[in-house]
Amino acid sequence: MKKGFILTCIIASIVVAFFITSIPLHVHAQEKATKLRLSSFWPPMHPLTKLLDQWGKDVTQATQGRIVITVFASSTLSPPMQVYDNTVKGIVDVGTTLLAYAPGRLPLSEVLQQPLGYRNAYQATKMANEFYKKFKPKEFDDVKVMFLHGAAPGFIFTKKPAKSTADIKGLRIKANAENADIVKNLGASPVTMPVTETYDGLSRGLVDGCLFPLEALQGFKIGEVVKTVIENYGMSYMTSIYVIMNKDKWNAISPADQKAIEKVNEEYIEKFGKTWVALDAKAVEFAKSKGVTFVSVSKEDEAATAKKMKPILDDYVKMTKSKGLPGDEALKFCQDYLKKNQ
User: Fold this and answer.
1) Domain annotation covers residue 283
2) Which long-range contacts (CB under 8 A, 24 or more apart) does 314-320 make?
3) Does residue 174 contact residue 188 with C-beta atoms inside 8 Å?
4) Average pLDDT of the residues in 291-307
5) Which domain holds residue 187?
6) How many domains does the chain have?
7) Is 102 exposed, middle or buried (0-12, 13-18, 19+ CB in 10 A)?
8) Percent residues over pLDDT 90 in the chain
9) pLDDT at position 260, please?
10) Is residue 122 situated within a structural domain?
11) pLDDT-based confidence at residue 32 (cuts at 50, 70, 90)
């Protein structure tokens, strides 16, 4: 009887010891989170950095804490021009920057930055994601696309008062390489300079104007050094931006959590589009408070401008065709979308 009691106690002790040692390990395994680093080029207090941070928090909530995302603002994790490559390599887990900062690497998707006549950033953001869903460009195959968004419409701002698009002719206009032909086709001279130097360039008279989305009027204080915004939708373009994840990091996430993240992404397509519109509205208000005049050109002026943009669109189609890509289909899809979703 005594031996049986001792044996029972030993067995009970083993069982208790098993639970004491195994439960914490099990709980620890469940609580261990995948930590991802997100590279953003906006400063910490910028509304879009805050929105990215909230996206990360919503991803954490949707995955019940299994995915944790930390935002590194002001390009502290990667230079903007290297975000795509660094995301592919895994130096960056989640990266966001302009599509134009991967020149030649995303040829079919260059349709998004063409002068298509964008009306606003919500329309542009929605269209960019519909384009991606339809064409699934292979150029993005080495990463996982979370979603696309961007600033629109892009217009020409001038230092001196202007009354029509014709007043742009002969001016020196700051423009990026990807949209320099917009300036050329309007009879002006494109000048390349970093966005961070544009304020000073305008102040010192190095350029007579700039080609920018409306948000830059406040975001980069351009509204303090220009006099006119020429609202010509015949040439308005989009500054397109991606949010991508390293492919290996994405594949390591469970299918259930992947599905949860993609649901969050759909919500943030809406949020980013609406945030851009709100930022544009504030930028316009800011510029007007500084005395900037907004000139809405005539329908005839818009039509004439759109005609001058056609060679740019033709060049895009030729470029994609030379690479065996359906640029004509992509262009038509985008044009049709914008007509149906004014």
Assistant:
1) yes
2) 315/181, 316/110, 316/111, 316/114, 319/107, 319/110, 320/107, 320/108, 320/110
3) no
4) 97
5) 33-340
6) 1
7) middle
8) 89
9) 98
10) yes
11) confident
